[in-house]
Amino acid sequence: QVQLVESGGGLVPAGSSLRLSCLASGHTVNGHPVSNYMGWFRQAPGKEREFLAAITWNGVNTYYADSIKGRFTITRDNAKNTLYLQMNSLKPDDTAVYYCAESAQLLPPRTESGYTYWGQGTQVTVSS
User: Fold this and answer.
1) 3-state class of 17 per DSSP?
2) What is d(CA 6, CA 11) in angstroms, rounded to the nearest whole number?
């Protein structure tokens, strides 16, 4: 069974950087991945969950939402079973709970419904 655990959130001033991590377990069977993509989403109070970025199993291809392109970078280290989200130049509008997720879809999903497995989330708060 796939389990995802996010970490790295916190309270930081505007302009800071944070790196979120997502430790995955149970997402390979006999060395083969059960998912094709991993992604990051966020949800601010009173708002819908928002797609941020996705990455292929081998880390070669990445996909970003226009809202964070150029500031956030998604990477993965399969040897460590860990997905990362490097966030730079943080703004108060980036305040949200950040989630990692896995998808078995053949094309990179940019919606919540395209992902099967989810972590519990990590809070990021950016002060002005």
Assistant:
1) coil
2) 16
Each residue of 104-116: b (16+ CB within 10 Å) or e?
A: eeeebbbebebbe
Q: Which two tokens stand for residue 104?
A: 């078995």
Answer whether 75's CB lies under 8 Å from 64's CB. Answer: no
Residues 60 and 9: beta-carbon distance below 8 Å: no
Q: Given this model, what pLDDT does residue 1 score?
A: 84
pLDDT digits (tens, 9 = 90+) for 23-41: 998 877 766 777 899 999 9
Which two structure tokens, joined as six digits, stand for 3?
Answer: 């389990």
100: Cα separation from own chain's centroid: 4
- Give residue for tokens 């970078």: 73
| Token pair 């389990």 in the structure block, residue | 3
What is the identity of the amino acid at 17?
S
